[in-house]
Amino acid sequence: MDRCVLIPSYRPDQTLLQTIASMQAVGFTKIVVVDDGSGPVYASIFSKAAANGATVLHHTVNMGKGRAMKTGFCHILEAFPQCTAVTVDGDGQHKAEDAWKAADLAAKHPEALVLGCRDFSRQKAIPLPNLIGNLSTKAAFFLLTGIRFTDTQCGLRAYPPALMRTACGISGDRFEFESNTLLAVRAKKLQVVEFPINVHYEPKEDYVTTYQKGTDSARILRCLMDFALLPILFGLLSSLLVLTLTNTVPGSETMLGILAGVGVTVGKLLLALCSVKKLALTFHALESGIVYGALFMLLCALGCSAVGAFWILFVPFALLSYPLYRMLNYGRCPRRIRVRSRHCA
Questions:
Q1: Sheet (strand 112-118) strand order
Q2: Distance between CA 237 and CA 200 in Å, rounded?
Q3: What angle do CA 157, 181, 317 make, to 5 degrees?
Q4: Alpha-carbon torsion 243, 244, 246, 248, what sign?
Q5: Strand runs (DSSP E) across 12-134, as ranges?
Q6: What is the pTM of this model?
Q7: CA dihedral of 162, 164, 167, 173, whole degrees rounded to 10
Q8: What's the start-to-end Cα distance of the chain, in Å?
Q9: What confidence tens digit (pLDDT) does each residue in 243-273 have?
């Protein structure tokens, strides 16, 4: 499988040219750079990049890293339809040898997303916001998707042709696009290959990033919430129905259990209608309603009030309910291959 490097770039310095040269030195003959609306001040750098053998694509205005990557993917799919694209940053963070390794792994796993993951236990001089952001998003991704990604914010990735076509349809125009790609791993059952890399960071006083901490972090948080938005909303609706029905309609313990089960079932049936696996989730809704109603009735028979029974069941039921929904709607976690050594295949 052929290979090329894709570099989304916004207001670069001379390091972009050094990055291009280093990629060519290890054997990459196809370099695609996307000027994401950097403006006329930076035109000379992109002209030099083109003169040095890179294909330079231009956005008239800044559209974001995600949109720049999609522009590059579309060009590569048209110009080099059998080519794997390795995305790297143009600021010298990623080593050319690691980019070549990513392409090698993509050739062995042509259906997989290849991630070059930073080893934070050994990485030196990593900016604290980067470390905190990665640790928090790793935890969020695991809770929402059930997948333990080693590095959720890695920029060095390899996209085989089939995956590029998929990625062009994934939402997000800025940094959240890469997070949405990881969410698509679960939703679209994509295989993942991870291998460890070291990246170079400039000293704190010289470190420059286009990542806007507030705005881009909010976008990433939103894409994480969107992934679980419907289960959360319908879960809250179920809770509201249970509380309302069991506290407004008088009746015996049996009646309270039936009403509680109905509240849970209604919320989960609405979720089933909005989900991919409607039949499986419909059965899940009925089973959940029966189990919840029986437990609710038992607690009431033991002397709990309706409100007390609700709160006793709330946390364990929520902790079990979402993973079951995730399994039924998306299936089992896709295969994740971890290459332990930077020097092994």
A1: 55-59, 31-36, 2-9, 83-87, 157-159, 112-118, 191-197, 336-338
A2: 48
A3: 130
A4: positive
A5: 31-36, 55-59, 83-87, 112-118
A6: 0.80
A7: -170
A8: 16
A9: 999 998 877 899 999 999 999 999 999 999 9
